[in-house]
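Worked example 2:
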Amino acid sequence: MKALFIKDMRQLWRTFRLPALLLAGLFFAILDPIGAKYLPQIMEQLMHGAEGISIIMPEQGPEDALISFLGKNLSQMGAFIVILTAMGAVAGERERGISAWVLTRPVGRLPYFWSKFAAYSTGIVLTVSSGTFLAALYTASLIGAPPIMPTVWGAVFMILYLELILVITLSASALLRGQIAAGGASFAALMLLWLPQLFLEQTEAARYMPYRLSSLIAALLKGSAAPTDILPALPAVFIVAAAFLTAASLSFRRAEL
């Protein structure tokens, strides 16, 4: 398992998948504090001289920069990037015959699958933790210090949310033979995760929906929600993840390579 994990980490680096994750996180970590700092001035300059139009932008605080980073860009663009980088983890190697070659060695199918999960999970943790740290430092230098514990909790819940997306994508990659099909299925599953928000947001059932891991980050950073408000969603997250992983493990163990 250790040798497989090292191989997968090297492959993620050489194929630019891990650098893509890290660079995306660092890009938004720099961009979002700048946007929070200078957006009101930019809008004022754009509307300068426009007669009859008045736009008043509220003053942006340090928590707004972290909301843009964690609650918007990472939860949306980060999820898309995870899907794009992980959809070929298994299916792509099966298409190129790499899986069959690796599994002729004394390597089990489940360790092969789980080493990929561990490698991509490491990439997600590195991306979110390093990006959040940089965003917090840059925000403190431009606007002011963001709230420490809400920022830490926001990063933790964002890691869990992206891990759920990763589980779905890797499972689709193991269940389906083509990486395009795996990517399409993963995007469809992502939409289905957010679909209950349209119907259940104002009900008690909303507290237990997986999408709450990312949708409450803004309220968490603003101080209008606490970590305990997000915890009820974790059982559903673990149930969904376990169902996908079980189906993928059973299918891949019997699949023809």
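The first helix runs from residue 2 to 14. The mean pLDDT is 87.
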